[in-house]
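User: Show me a protein chain along with its predicted structure.
Assistant: Here is one chain, sequence first, then structure tokens.
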Amino acid sequence: MVSQAKGSAYVELRKTKVVCSVFDPREIPHQNEFRQLGQLYCEVKFAPFSCPRKRRPYVPDVEEKALSVALRQALEPAVCRHFFPNYQIDVLIYILEHDGSCLAAAINAAGLALANAAVPMFDIITSCSVAVIGNKMFIDPTEIEEHIAKNSTEVNHGIITMSVLSQLKQISDFTQIGSMDVECVTKVMEVLLKECEIIVPNIQRVLVVDVVKNFELKKHLEAETKKREEILKKKMDEWRSLLNGQ
């Protein structure tokens, strides 16, 4: 998706469109002490045209900072950070269009981009959001549904976003906005676990297709290299024969 990045991914979640770029590990800037674990630098940025309201293109706002922190917290348990001590990996999210569930879309895109960049990971990370309004649940809510859930006067209202490491059966991050009782939260978590499991085969298929594509590209490059070496060898033999003839 992004040619300048080590790995990248593009995810559409209904009308929400997200691009993620992952770059090579680099030394942690202004770091005096040695760190056993590498760091993830995550930055979420909205395009100026992504929302109906205007956004400042160069100054991060409160929502972008909060999403950046939530993204880092979700990804840290999934990445094998002990493989690159004293280094950091930059994960940049650019939201082209925002229509709700942007954190879940960003986490899914980041997991794909990290895998595309060959960053060691413990497991595939998947994420999903649910908006709660009274006794109703909206999976992957739109921006309007999120707004109603946040400002509802119902006893149970709000948004829950959960990230899961499917094979390890672990929850890497849990974010809740709003007020809900224990029974409601338990029901929402069961729904989110099922939805995250549904996403896993799709991500696996994308990763397999990417690996097959890379192998085919490698074979093509090797064949091209061999062909050029044969042409170069033939030319060298011709030059040697001409030199020997003189």
